[in-house]
Amino acid sequence: MEVSMQNFVFNATTEMNFGRGQIEKLPKILGRYGRNVLMVYGMGSIKRNGIYDKVMSLLDDFNVYELDGVTPNPRIDKVREGVMICRNYHIDVVLAVGGGSTIDCSKAIAGAYYYDGDAWDIVMDNSRITDVLPIVAVLTAAATGSEMNKNAVISNPERHEKIGTSSLKFIPRAAICDPEYTYGVSKFQTAAGTADIMSHVFENYFKSEKGTYIQDRFGEGIIEACLKYCPRAMEDPCDYDARANLMWASSMALNGLIGCGKGSQSWSCHPIEHELSAFYDITHGAGLAIVTPKWMRHILNEKTARRFKKYTRNVFHVQDTGDDYEMAEIGIDKTEQFFKDIGLPSTLSELGIDDSKIQVMAHNAVIHGRLDNAYVPLDDMDVEKILRACL
Amino acid sequence: MEVSMQNFVFNATTEMNFGRGQIEKLPKILGRYGRNVLMVYGMGSIKRNGIYDKVMSLLDDFNVYELDGVTPNPRIDKVREGVMICRNYHIDVVLAVGGGSTIDCSKAIAGAYYYDGDAWDIVMDNSRITDVLPIVAVLTAAATGSEMNKNAVISNPERHEKIGTSSLKFIPRAAICDPEYTYGVSKFQTAAGTADIMSHVFENYFKSEKGTYIQDRFGEGIIEACLKYCPRAMEDPCDYDARANLMWASSMALNGLIGCGKGSQSWSCHPIEHELSAFYDITHGAGLAIVTPKWMRHILNEKTARRFKKYTRNVFHVQDTGDDYEMAEIGIDKTEQFFKDIGLPSTLSELGIDDSKIQVMAHNAVIHGRLDNAYVPLDDMDVEKILRACL
Known about the structure:
The first copy, chain A, has 391 residues and is of the alpha/beta class. Chain A has helices at residues 26-31, 45-48, 51-58, 76-89, 100-112, 119-124, 187-205, 213-235, 240-253, 269-280, 284-299, 305-316, 324-341, 358-368, 380-390, and strands spanning 8-10, 15-18, 36-40, 63-67, 93-98, 135-139, 151-156, 161-166, 174-177.
């Protein structure tokens, strides 16, 4: 089952401007690309916490056009709206001010701008992404890592589809990461974001390649940072160290670093969760918190137990009992307990989700996520079992 | 003494092409910049192991000019020679094929090309670096991290000076990192390179900033990789996993990642070792192996003991005895023992170095390294004591 470290290309090109007051650099950064800016943002939190006013005050010398109302699980109709603005006003650069949803939406806009057909086409088939407008991100939530990577996940509610697409050209040119900008993130969203960060590590950590020692130590460090700092940020939302470590964890978990040399297999929990979000529009991180421990138990077997044991030992610093299986179960239990401790749901019932869509969700997850190629390959029946365990 | 995480910019832009057979990409990579290539290399090992022939066979469509004979502790006269070739043949891109010395020399050439005065000026004063020719590296030794960073260290034997300079424009555009290309590195050079990698982590790990949790976990992971894989690579030079992890450790230890948010203080051991190399032309990593444990003991005090304890606990997995000082000493002893175990010298006498130059080396280290601003500030007397302890 184990294979050697794969060849890889690591090229995380985003200029990460991290820390208090970095927003002051925004005019200089945007000025590299032009004067016509499309500013994309969400449901108005940046107006309540002053970030909107701050950004606007810095952009006197720019022509700023706005696209607001980007929702969690950002939708293709919002992408289409953004493309129209870009074309009407000859936008030079897309400025995303928000979390992962806003940045993902901005990426799709920036890519669809150069595509003649419908924007949904480039989500379904990234070979249609030929060029992309420059993207700059001002990050206001630690979760998806979109600020430093090539990925975008877009939902199509009419079709009950939530699909990930990617392009190297989607990588933001620069990001402003001020931990203070996340002080206003709610306890629930802080927890959900943390579950997302942790899942990004899991998706790369639980793979068949051996010899990826450094990547695995890095991944464990990110998980440990989540375990340590998420409760602290929930306890005191203005704990700078906690917010800073969660923010940096977000970027480090999914900028390619943890996955270097581990490229051969599909992800597991994300595709399953994407179906939940597509059908029920639930919070991505909450869905992951439910699915992850059940997935871990489902794939635990003689071949995978050693990797889970390593996880248990290195992340939770549990003394080795000598029994791989027992050690694995301790780690899975601790993972599940952590999600409960930070207030995330552990069953679908808590979110009012029943078993009526399980078959179609399982089927779609296997197809969209190419789960036959996952760390432990999953077919429709496997995913159904995992989802039923989540009820 | 402790301060908060500093603001930082992280922008490691090198396209890292890692793994077996990546050399095949070389023509495509170089072709981005032009047809006139200056190929810089060292003392001929690449001719013996076939890398030279392989590179040449791939570059039929290019005009390749050669600068060979770059020595360890690369010298300013070699830089001047390279600049002449670049000007005479309108070089478009500098291709470094070698280890840190070759890449550092290439950086200085690429920067001095655009400077009208003597090349040494840009080493002494990096504000004179205005533009830099594109640099591409084919890495053949794991050590300095130069393949993914902005630094170059150049020696001026006439002046007994070994000086580090840096520019964001020095960062190689792309690197080819094939672990098999390091199979021929001798046991001694493998060990010395490992000591260099470890020192790069130490220089960032032992700093006063608190709250840099992720960076510290990453640093510990790199040190652990060195402890695990250096002996394996010495035992079996063709152990792919061992060579791959050391190579990736090299790049990760000094691409800015471990130092994110820890920018406020000078390095300690590198400036001291640079004086040893400047006066006695010794192998950098060997000098570091001698200086590092003595420096650690010299700066161990009530304020620093806790950080050393953390190092001991997280890297060597020693059960906490409860006594910070005792724990610190265990970690320092283990570090010193590791360097001995991999065959590196632990005293200057072993290299035939006596106390005759200690005063001038100490003085120069304090000035060139701005050691008054180190983690534990060091004056001439401190460095003299450290160097005397090394005798």
